[in-house]
Amino acid sequence: MSLLRRTGFAFIASLLMSGTALAAAQHLEVLSTNGCGCCIAWTKHVEENGYTAEIEHLPMADLMQEKIKAGLQPDQTSCHTAMIEGYVIEGHVPAREIDRLLAERPGAIGLAVPGMPYGSPGMGEPGPDADPYDVLLVRRDGSTEVFANYPDGRN
User: Fold this and answer.
1) Tens digits of per-residue pLDDT, 31-75?
2) What is the pTM of this model?
3) What whole-number distance in Å separates Cα of residue 18 and Cα of residue 117?
4) Structural domain boundaries of the chain?
5) How far apart (Å, rounded) are the C-alpha atoms in residues 132 and 17?
C-alpha cells in the first residue's frame, strides 16, 4: 500500500474519531429525583437543541450530596444537576447558554439557574406570566456572576 494511500486512510480515520468524540462531548449526565416532571421537560429541551442526555434518579439526600460535592452552594441549587465536559449545569439553564459555556470555556464550576423560575426551560411556557431570571456562572471559589439575563423569562 502506498504512503499516500495509508496517509489518506489515517486522515479519514482521524476525522471519524474526532466526529465520534465531538458527538460524545455533547452528552449530559442528569441527576434528578424520580418522577420530577420539570426535570424530564428540561431534558427534552436540551435534547431538542442537539444534546443527548441520560437521567439517573437518586433519593433527594443523595442528590443534595452530589450538588455539594460538585461545589454548589445551597442558594445556587435547583431540582436537577447535569454534568457535561467537566462543567456542572444546575437547574433550568437554557441550551443556548450551555452552548456558550462550552464555546467560551471559562474557568468555572459551571452554570446555575437557582430555584425553578416559571418560563425557564422545563418550567412552563415563556410568556407574559414568566418570571425573570438570571443564569449564573458559578466560579470555583463559590462566587457567581450573571452569565445571561432573561428579564422577560423567555429562553
Assistant:
1) 999 989 999 999 999 999 999 999 999 999 999 999 999 999 999
2) 0.82
3) 37
4) 27-150
5) 42
Question: Of 79, 47, 83, 86, which is closest to residue 63 (Cα–Cα)?
Answer: 79
CATH topology of domain 27-150: Glutaredoxin (3.40.30)
Nearest to 100 by CA among 44, 43, 147, 136: 147
CA 153 to CA 155: how far, in whole Å?
A: 6
116-154 pLDDT tens trace: 999 999 999 878 889 999 999 999 999 999 999 998 766
- Of residues 86, 129, 104, 102, the one with CA closest to residue 46: 102
Q: How many CB atoms lie within 10 A of CB 57?
A: 14
Angle between the N-to-C axes of helices 37-48 and 95-104, in degrees from 0 to 180, rounded to the nearest 10: 60
Residue type, 35: G
Quick one: the chain helix, strand, coil %, rounded to 5? 35, 25, 40
